[in-house]
Amino acid sequence: MIGDATEAETYLQWGKAISDSLQLPLFMVTFSSILGKLYVKKRLWDLAEKELQSAQEILKKSNTMLCCSKCKLILEVTLNQFFGDLCLSKYDSCEGTTSGKTAKYWFTDALDKLNLSEWKNSLSCPDNGSDETAMDVKCGSAMTCTCSTMNETGENVRKSMKAGPATKIGAKQNKKTKKEAKVLTKDTNLAIESKPRITRSRYRASQNQCIGISSKSEVVKSVDENIISNPSGMLNWTESDLNNLDATTCIFSKMRCWHCLPSEVLKSGLLTDFINLRWEFVRRKLSMKLLTRLVKCFAYPNQIDEVHKVLLRSVSVLASRNPFCHTFSSIPLDYFVHMVPKEIPGDVFTIERAEIIYEICWYLLKCYHSKAARNFFCNINSIRFEDLASWLMVAFILCRAVSDIFQKVSKLLAVIHVSALREQISMSSLSQPLGENYWASYFHQASIGTHYTHQFLSNLTGRCKDSYISKSCNQEGSKLLLRLVPDTSVDLAEYVKIYLDSLPSTTIICISLLGRDYASLLQELLLYPTSVKAWMLVSRLSFKSEPIVMLLPLDSILQDSDEDDLISGTLFEKPSENWHCPWGFTAVDDVAPAFRTILEENYLSTVSPFEDTPQNRILWWKRRRNLDHRLDELLRNLEDLWFGPWKCLLLGEWLNCKNFDLVFKNLVNDLRSKCKIDVNESLLKVILGGSKYVCEGETIVSQLCSRKDCYVAKVGYCDEVRNGVLLKAANEFGVSSEVAFQLFNDALEVLEVDDSVNREPVILVLDYEVQMLPWESLPVLRNLEVYRMPSVSSISAALDISSIHQEQEGRNIISFPSIDPLDAFYLLNPDGDLCRTQDEFENWFRDQNLEGKAGSKPTVKELASALTSHDLFIYFGHGSGAQYIPRHEIQKLEKCAATLLMGCSSGSLTLQGSYVPQGVPLSYLLAGSPVIVANLWEVTDKDIDRFGKAMLDAWLKQRSDLPAECFQCNLLAEEFENMNLKGKSKRKGARKKSQESAETDSSRINCGHRPKIGAFMGQAREVCTLPFLTGASPICYGVPTGIWRKKNV
C-alpha cells in the first residue's frame, strides 16, 4: 500500500474476484475494504466510497457467520477508520465534497466500539477499587516495574548533584550492577523456558519480558550519562524539579504500568491471559491509529483544547495499564519522557509510538508561543526546542521502516532546526557535536524519496551478494548508505557526520516546497510579519564543504492569459479527451498556477483538431509561440521572485578558474582580520563562485555577517534585505557595512572568469511537490550540466551499481559511469505513424552502423536483450515506450543502457494521491541505467526531432574529439611535475610510472573534467523552434555520465 498503486490495485481486484466466486464473504469484506483504502490514497473518492459501502453491506449480511464478537468489532472498526480517512482526504484536498457523516464521527464511533465492556478483563482493565499502587506492583520474575523506580531515580539524581564530578566511580558501579542484572535475567528466563511445554504466545511474551526487566537500569543510565533517550536533561534539574517526583509517582499510581503486563502474563502461564494480551495488543494498536487521525479533524487554534485531550488520551493508551480511564488534564513531563519517546527493545507499538510523538510535537510547535503548549505538561514554564527535536529523533529511529511516517518526521525535524535560527530559540545541547546546518540538511534529504532509497539500496544489496563482486561493494560509503539510519538515536550525530562526509564528488541540491500546514506552522514559529502561501527549503550538499540550508518565502507568480484564451477559442474544437494533470494538485498550484495552465493549453494545442488552412496555421503558430513566451516569462519570474540573489546556490563549483582558490583565501582572511567576521566559508565560496549572478551583493554579504549555519532569507526587491539587515549585522561586530561590501567587490574584480570556464555537474533531488517543474531551464541553470535523482542515497547507490558493471567489464573504475554512443540500439517509429521522423533518422542510424528496428513493433524479449547488451538505447515514438517493455520488465534487468526517450511525457512522473510518484525513468534507474534523457510534457514531433538530432550529433562529436588534451588534467600534471618528491625509492617510482602508463589511455578518455551527457542539453534546447515549450521539456535523470570510445566499436 506504499509502492505501486496500479500493481496493488490489480492484485486486490483479483483477490476480490476469487473471494466472490468462492462465496467467501469475510474475504470479500477484507479485499473491498483495502481497495477502498487504496482509492482513498489515490484520491478516487467515488470508487473508494463504492468499495467501502460494498464491504459494509456484505458485513451486515454475513453477521451471523461471525461467531466471535471481537472479530466482528475489529472489522467494523477498520471500516469506520477507512470511512473517516475518506472524509479526511476530501477535506484536506479541498476538492471533493464531504458527506454529512464527517471524519470526526467515523473515528469517534470506531473508538467507542473499542471501549465497549467486551474488551474489559483483568489485564486490560484491572480492578479500579484496588488499593494496590504502582509502587507495590511487581513485574514477572520479581523485577520491579519501571514506574516504581522514579523515587529511586530521584535519590540517584540528588546524590549525583551533591557529589559533583567525584561520582564517576559510582557510575562505573552502576554499569557493573546492570551487567549483573542482565545475568540474573538470563538465568530467570532459562528457568522459565525449562518448562515442558512452551506455546507460541508464551514465547512472544518472553521476548517482551526484557522491557520490564531492563527499565530500571535504563532509567538510571539515562540519569547518569544524560544520553539522548533522556531529552529533557535530568542532570540539569533543580531542587524544585526533584521535589516534583512525588507528584509524578502519584500519576503513575493512578495509571499503573503497561510495560510490566507481558511479564505478568508470562509468569501466570494461563492461556486465557495470553489470548487477552494478544487482543489487547490489537485493540491498542487500532485505538492509537484512530486517535492520531482524530487529531487532524480539529482546527487550530479554535479547537486546541480538543486536540489537547485526544493527545493525552493517546499517551494513556500507549503507556497506561488501564487506558479506559482518562481523567487527567495534563501529565508530568518526566512521566512523558520516560514512557513515550523511548527506544524499547521488543516494543510492539514502535510505529504507533512514533506517530504519537510526531503529533504531540506538531501540536506543541503549532501553539509554541501560547499557553496551550505549557498546559500540556504539569509544572513547567515552557517547552524547549531541543526537547522537541530530541523526541522527534527518537521517532525518526523508530519509524525508519515505514516510508510515509519517516518522511513526515524527517521534514518536521528539518523545519525545527531551520526555525531554531531565531535568537529566542536555543538548540545548544543538540548543536554541540554538529551545527544546525548538518542536522537540517541531513533531515531534509532524508525526507525526500525515502521509498526510492529503499528500492535502490535493495537492488544494490542484491548485486553485492553475487560472488564475482569483490571490491566495489566493500567500500565504507556503500556500507554506510545501505543502512538508512543508525540503530539507536545515541549514534545519530556520529552517523550524520559520516553520511555527509561520504557524499559523491559532485554538488547536490535538495529542494522541497512547504505549503499549507507548514506555511502556517512556520509563520507561527518565525513570527513572520506577512502571510506566505508556501516556503521553499533548499539544501546544498557537497563532500568538499559544509552543507548550506536556506529557507525562502515564496511569492505567488500570476500571469494573464486572456490573449491566448481568445486565440484558442476561435481556432480549436473541443478535444476528444481532457488533459490529465500528472501530479493532481500540490503546493505548486498555489504559488505558480500559471504552470498548470500552460501545460494544459500546450496539450490542447497538440491534440485538438482544426481545419488545415493557411489562416489556421498562422493562428496555431501564434498560440504556440505565445505559450513559449509565457513559459519563458514564468521561469524568469520563478528565479527572480523565489530565489532572488540566492540563485547562486544552484550552481556547481568552477572546474578551471585559474585564480579562484587564491582570491577566495585572501577574501576570507580579509573579512576575518579587517571586519572581525567569523565568516561561513562554504557560503562565501558559493557566493564568490556565482559572482556573475550576484546582482544584490548587499543582501548576500549580510548573511555572511549573521554567524548562522542555516538561513531564513527574504527574496525579491526588499529594501530591508538590501540595506537594513547588513547594517544591523555589521554594527553588531563594530564594523561598517561598507568595509565588507568593498572587500567583496574587490574580490569580484580580481576574479578571472569568462564564458569558457566550466562548472562541475549539479544533481537535483526534488520533493514530489516540485518535481514537475523544469528547474533545468531556469536562466541560471539552462546552459549548465544538470541531472535529477529521486533521493540522495540513490545517487551513491547508482554510482556503486555503475562501478560494479565497470568491474565486470574489466574497466578501470572511475568516479562516474561512461558510455560509448556508437554502441547503441534504436527503436524508431514502432507504431508506423511518424513517417517524417522515420525518414529523418533511419538512414542516419544505418550510416552510423547502429543496430535497431524501424517501423515495426519489437517483442519484450528483444528490447530486454538490447537494453542489457548495449550502452545506449534510442527511442523515437509515442510516449515512453512502456507499451513495448513494461516497467516491471525493465526493473528485472541486471544491467541497463543509458536511454534517450523522445516521446511525449516520457519523463513525466505520475503522482496518484498520497502514493509516491511513479514513472518509466525511475524504472530505468532502478535497472541500472546511468542516465535517461526524457520529456516532462507533450511535444511536437518535428521540434523534438531537432533536439534529439542535436544531442546525438554532440555526443558523437565529443566521442571523436576524445584524444584532445584536457586543460584541467594538464594543469594538475604540471603541478605534480613541479613537486619535488624526495625520499621515494626508484623502485616505487618505476612501479608507479608503469601503472600510470598502463592506465594512460583510460584516464584520458574517462577524464572527469570533460563534458558529459548532460552538458549538451543547453545548446540542443536552442535548436528547437520553441526553445521553452519544446526545449524545456527534455531533462536528464541519473548521474553525470561521460562519453568514451570502445576499442571494438
In short:
Residues 983-1006 are annotated as: Disordered. With 1049 residues, the chain is an alpha/beta fold.
User: Uncertain spans, ≥5 residues at pLDDT below 50?
Assistant: 128-255, 467-479, 714-735, 981-1003
Please state the structural category: alpha/beta
The N- and C-terminal alpha carbons lie at a distance of 46 Å
Percent of residues in beta strands?
5-15%
Number of helices: 43
Mean pLDDT: 77
Helix coverage percent of residues?
A: 40-55%
Q: What is the β-strand count?
A: 16
Choose one word for the global shape: globular
Major sheet attributes: 6 strands, mixed
Backbone CA Rg: 32 Å
Strand order of the largest sheet: 6-5-4-3-7-8
What does this structure look like?
It contains 43 helices and 16 strands. Helix 35 (835-847) links the parallel strand 10 (824-828) and strand 11 (851-854). Helix 22 packs across helix 34, helix 25 (562-571) runs antiparallel to helix 28 (614-643) and helix 27 (593-607) runs antiparallel to helix 28. The longest helix is centred in the middle third of the chain and has 30 residues, at 614-643. The two termini are 46 Å apart. The model is unreliable at 128-255, 467-479, 714-735 and 981-1003 (pLDDT under 50).
Task: Please supply descriptive tags for the structure shown above.
single chain; 1049 residues; alpha/beta; 6-stranded mixed sheet
List the helices and strands and how they pair.
Elements: H1 5-21, H2 25-41, H3 45-61, H4 69-93, H5 103-114, H6 150-163, H7 168-193, H8 200-225, H9 239-243, H10 245-255, H11 261-268, H12 271-294, H13 304-319, E1 331-332, H14 333-339, H15 350-366, H16 371-376, E2 377-378, H17 385-398, H18 403-419, H19 428-431, H20 436-446, H21 450-464, H22 476-482, H23 492-501, E3 507-515, H24 517-526, E4 534-542, E5 545-553, H25 562-571, H26 588-591, H27 593-607, H28 614-643, H29 660-674, H30 681-689, H31 697-704, E6 710-712, H32 719-732, H33 737-750, E7 762-766, E8 786-789, H34 792-808, E9 818-819, E10 824-828, H35 835-847, E11 851-854, H36 860-869, E12 872-876, H37 887-890, E13 898-901, H38 920-927, E14 931-935, H39 941-960, H40 967-978, H41 986-998, H42 1000-1005, H43 1017-1023, E15 1034-1038, E16 1042-1043
Parallel strand pairs: 1-2, 3-7, 5-6, 7-8, 9-16, 10-11, 10-12, 12-13, 13-14
Antiparallel strand pairs: 3-4, 4-5, 14-15
Region (Disordered): 983-1006
Keywords: Chromosome partition, Hydrolase
Biased composition (Basic residues): 983-992
